[in-house]
Amino acid sequence: MTEVQLTAFEHILLGLICLAPSSGYDLKRIFATSPMGIYQPSSGALYPALRRLERKGLVRAGAASRADRHARARYVYEPTELGVVTQTRWLRAPVRRDTVARDLGLHLMRFVMMEHLLSPDQVRRFLRDLADALAAFTAELDQHAAATDPSSGHARLALDHGLAVHRASLQWTENTIAALATSPPLSA
Amino acid sequence: MTEVQLTAFEHILLGLICLAPSSGYDLKRIFATSPMGIYQPSSGALYPALRRLERKGLVRAGAASRADRHARARYVYEPTELGVVTQTRWLRAPVRRDTVARDLGLHLMRFVMMEHLLSPDQVRRFLRDLADALAAFTAELDQHAAATDPSSGHARLALDHGLAVHRASLQWTENTIAALATSPPLSA
DNA sequence: GTTTACATGTAATCCGTTACATGATTGA
DNA sequence: TCAATCATGTAACGGATTACATGTAAAC
């Protein structure tokens, strides 16, 4: 029971490898072409991170490595059993109210990655928690707003931005809960 | 013309000091109590950053230091002329389309800090640029969405989240441009 | 025949977190 | 006097960026 602690970046890599076995370059391409391409990991971040995951026994360089008559080394990583367990535990971690705003993007990544690792019920619970956390956060911002002179300059306007954005996020969460309730994930 | 390069964190500290001369502890309190308290800088980040700003000649420990019969050292920093120039240049920097999503929070910080350092016209231009960048980004997301099966699981749903949030941000930007046009900043 | 995509890596540097250390002042 | 607040700092550690290095394969 050695508590495996990973960085957010490592968890995202592990999650992507859980979705589909990938080489470092594959992962780079995923970041480059998918909408999450707002973050582009450098080689100096990516390859050492993969090595750390391997060293910790969460992924392994699988059979596909060095195939396809590629003379150049090519390591295709796949998750180990421990890797899947670790990732699943991360996905199940509660949504913390006090950091929901800071980690909003990360929570969305978790949502994407829990599709095949958690049960529909656990996904529902996650979204419910997320909605609650967002509601609490917007309520807090509302209080700040109420305590601020509405015509007091840019700080107040920026506060309105935070409110608008997190209300939209909350709205999405509620909509998604409803959508997943009426049309359950395809198990066809 | 030694190009002074600062981290985002350093620029935020410098910006806060430009708004009002502050000690390290003052800054800590600002982070703790204002809505931007989602980020709580540690002592190990804060004090070395202030030292770096001082070493680079952007702030100086002002007259208020060690006053108030505080035996314990207390350094109240105020911006130097070079500090104000550097900060102003940062505030004037263009909004980059390709990083608007990643740096959205930072752009809002810039908006707050440009209130007293830039002209209303420059603020307007900044918001116009921000709106354009957000429009470009949402258009890009729209294209991704159009190319994705609408019932294809969590990735698509997460994309919808990004769209909702950035549309809300864009809406705020347009609203704010309008608001600042009708009621110009108080110069009373 | 040279650029572009594929594919992985290292070294220097810098910065942030965590945890610990120190000491004064105020109020219960 | 004991806790909380004020107030600044250091040391160990880890990880990210930048820039550089290396080499193959495909395409033009």
Question: Care to describe what's here?
Answer:
The structure is a homodimer of 188-residue chains. The first copy, chain A, has 188 residues and is mainly alpha-helical. Chain A is built from 7 helices and 3 strands; from the N terminus they run αβααββαααα. Chain A has helices at residues 8-19, 24-33, 43-55, 81-92, 104-113, 120-146, 154-182; strands spanning 22-23, 59-61, 76-79. In chain A, strands 1-3-2 form a 3-stranded antiparallel beta sheet. In chain A, helix 1 crosses helix 4 (81-92) and helix 6 packs antiparallel against helix 7. Chain A is elongated. Chain A starts with 7 loop residues before the first helix and ends in a 6-residue tail after the last helix. The model of chain A has no long low-confidence stretch (mean pLDDT 91). The interface between A and B is large, with 39 and 39 residues. The first copy, chain A, binds a DNA duplex (28 and 28 nucleotides) through residues 7, 9, 23-25, 28, 41-49, 70-75.
